[in-house]
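Structural prep section.
Before we set up the soaks we want a predicted structure of the protein with D-mannose in place, mainly to decide which crystallisation condition to try first. Input record follows.
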Amino acid sequence: MQMTLRWYGSAFDTVTLKQIRQIPGVTGVITTLYDTMPGELWTREKIHALKEEVEAAGLKIAGIESVNIHEDIKLGKPSRDEYISNYIETLRNLGEEDIHMVCYNFMPVFDWTRTELARERADGSTVLAYTKKAVDDLVPEEMFNSISGDMNGTVMPGWEPERMARVKELFEEYKDVTEEDLFNNLKYFLEKIMPVCNEYDIKMAIHPDDPAWSVFGLPRIIINKENIQRMMKMVDDPHNGVTFCAGSYGTNPKNDLPDMIRSLKGRIHFAHVRNLKFNSIDEKTGEPLDFEEAAHLSSDGSFDMYEIVKALYDIGFDGPIRPDHGRMIWDEKAMPGYGLYDRALGATYINGLWEAIAKGNKK
Ligand code: DNO
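Run finished without errors. Recording the tokens verbatim:
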């Protein structure tokens, strides 16, 4: 594996490349052209400039998160072909710049969903949290307003004001879109981009839907083992792969994370490792009613991080890995989930687990 940190670019991130370079074992960043809109073509010049900046700081671009998918592609509208051509051109430009991993998601309208961005924990740290009741009680258009006060002046990925301004209209468009339609539209997209991915060896890594169930009645498909296996078979090419995000699949306690990892051997191109803590689960349905994000350490949350990292180690995972959302600690002011301190602790912890597993295996 290659340890990385997500970085939004010097114009958007509170964390600097120099700071990232000083975290032991971190050799690369996962980054993006944060000011491009879904569907827009990424020029070679812009990608090159980003790469030069990262390399000047002694780091590498280990992959892109994300090249976002235009809603028309997810909706299967006739205009999708134009956006897919742009996507193909973007992939070609990335390939020419020697970038070989692209994370994306196929979630309608919203990217990840949380109902609080700064819930205070007993130790005074703050974390992102989710309460089912808050989602049930909210109309989608209010979602952005209800959380935007906690963004510390940053623009959160997937919650860009431009996207939020169209929420109502988008819900109308998704009214009759079923999960089957979404699978078909994803297949159509992947089949079109696979030739360029093969030509440049670009590994596509779909990010799961977070949380791993339908929100606000929208169809969501990248949520469990069965569906992700279906997607892998639907376009059976090693370049059609997965971002294994422990925190997203793990929102559903029925998802057995180490088992899912083992079943995806050879198809995991990127790993997001984080922990969360369930506070309340509906006893009848097994559905989580409340969870909050936790420190990476197993004992701080509900996941067995050793088993997750061990499964990645056992399948021979050699792609980029990153600590995911961190808590806000030590009075840091940053994008919720993306401060420096707790993610640096997370990287160090994951590195420690990995070293112990690797050495234990040699004995
Ligand atoms: C949230 C992230 C997601 C992820 C996208 C990938 O913090 O995990 O926004 O980057 O879903 O496209």
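Observations: The pocket of D-mannose is lined by residues 65-66, 103-105, 111-112, 157-158, 207, 337 (CB under 6 Å).
Flagged for discussion at group meeting.
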